[in-house]
Write a structure and sequence with these properties.
Chain lengths: ~180, ~150
């Protein structure tokens, strides 16, 4: 009897690996987990979209639960997710924006056309601050906790189901 | 004949030009060569199967410029890789580094092979050995053998 069990071991090992890899096939490999989860927001200071506009720095992201949305006027999925950001802002969720590799006047036009959900927008024309955040495309949305730590990154447009299933529960859990 | 061959050779010769633009290149050729070498090990996260040296994506260009900046600032190759891994994770390196988290990735297949070989070894050892002595025949069988052997003689 023990002999038979021993022969089943390679089969069991194969089944375990096959299940693990099969599950892996259902996941989107192009979506990368953030390397900064649970780490503090990188120190940064970005100018605003106009000479008299305040801009954005990491200090604004401490002291409360916030969302940071990385976007650009040339990014089509950013248009798709914009209503979700407007809705969250209307509910009182602090949403901040970083305009990534975009010209300030184009960003201004984008926000004028679609509405501005952001408490403040930083203009990252060179994308260098984006590199510090580990941004590899737009849009990306980060959930920041009270201590200024990155708790979650959403890659791609924020669709309503993402907001309901991932963002809202996390905001609630963090006390936002 | 040799002319045809040399023309063919020229046509088939593929140079590793990469995606590096002239305005990105460093003035010092040794530093530029180092930048190219480091870049070849950095994954372009947009087209994830290319290095930043090969990729035409804008993020690849940004990262190429970043690598050259850090070389000019005096960072070692390891420091540059650490800088990028801190921001993008281990996946940004095309060749995963050896660490407690990647040893299974590196040695997993070898371990499986060794386990399979061990299993085979155990299987072959456990098989019943061939009998050491020939089976003995009783009297009736010996007679029969003698008769059969005798019948064979001409």
């Amino acid at each position: 009897m023990r002999r038979r069990l021993f022969f089943l071991l390679p089969l069991a090992l194969f089944a375990a690996i096959a299940l693990y890899l099969g599950f892996g096939l259902t996941r989107d490999a192009s979506v990368l987990p953030s390397a900064l989860i649970d780490k503090p927001v990188p120190a940064f200071s970005l100018p605003g979209l106009a000479p008299d506009a305040p801009g954005l720095d990491d200090a604004a992201l401490h002291g409360g639960v916030t969302l940071v949305n990385i976007f650009a006027s040339w990014c089509v999925p950013c248009r798709v997710e914009h209503p979700q950001l407007m809705a969250l802002a209307r509910e009182g969720v602090p949403v901040y924006g970083i305009a990534w590799k975009d010209k300030a006047e184009d960003t201004r036009a984008f926000l004028a056309e679609l509405g501005n959900p952001f408490r403040a927008v930083g203009s990252d024309g060179s994308g260098r601050v984006g590199i510090d955040w580990g941004v590899y495309g737009v849009p990306e949305t980060y959930v920041i906790d009270r201590e200024g730590r990155i708790r979650y990154r959403h890659v791609g447009p924020l669709l309503p189901q993402h907001v309901e299933e991932r963002i809202r529960p996390l905001l609630k859990e963090l006390g936002g | 004949m040799t002319r045809i061959l040399s023309v063919l050779a020229l046509l088939l010769w593929v140079s590793a030009a990469g995606a590096v633009q002239p305005d990105e290149m460093l003035a010092d050729p040794a530093a530029e060569a180092r930048a190219r070498a480091v870049s070849r090990d950095i994954r372009c996260l947009v087209c994830q199967n290319q290095s930043i040296d090969d990729s035409d994506a804008e993020l690849a260009r940004d990262l190429r410029l970043l690598v050259r900046e850090r070389i000019r600032a005096g960072d070692s190759d390891t420091a540059i890789r650490d800088f990028l891994v801190a921001r993008y994770g281990e996946f940004v390196l095309l060749k995963p580094r050896m660490s407690s988290r990647t040893w299974l990735l590196w040695f997993g297949p070898l371990l499986l092979l060794a386990a399979g070989a061990a299993g085979l070894a155990v299987y072959f050892r456990r098989r019943p050995a061939a009998p050491a002595t020939e089976p003995t025949l009783d009297a009736g069988e010996r007679d029969r053998l003698a008769r059969l052997a005798g019948e064979d003689r001409p």
